[in-house]
Amino acid sequence: MIAVLAAQKRSADTVPSAIRDLVDYRLAFRCATRDASDVILGAGQATRGFSASEIESSKRGVGLLLAGDPDPKAIKCYYLDDRAIAERIRNAASLRTFGESGDRR
Question: Among 31, 93, 96, 94, which Cα is nearest to 59's?
Fold first, then answer.
């Protein structure tokens, strides 16, 4: 089973450790504090030098990925701002064709 858990507010109440510890892949984007980063990556990671709070706010799509290895790796994800998303939606809508009944396919 693949589960995706996401939270904007990172706290022990939002992501209980009993659930977090069941998730092998964890991705922490920029966090405001070292403690918030540790909620996602695991207690003590910030002390070991792996804190998402050190990611610059201008670095959109950058995060720390914890995936099987004890040390998180810095990664860059594909990032689309609101304007780019709206542009892709308009493009996708223009590519749709109408069927015989007039319904979009």
Answer: 31
How many residues make up the chain in this entry? 105
* Beta carbons within 10 angstroms of residue 28's beta carbon: 25
Here the tokens at position 76 are 């860059």
Report the distance separating Cα 24 and Cα 66, nearest Å.
8
For 85-97, what is each residue's pLDDT tens digit? Answer: 999 999 988 887 6
Sequence-distant (6+) residues with CB within 8 A of 75 are: 27, 62, 63, 64, 65
Residue 25: its H or E element: strand 25-29
Coil, strand or helix: which one is 12?
coil
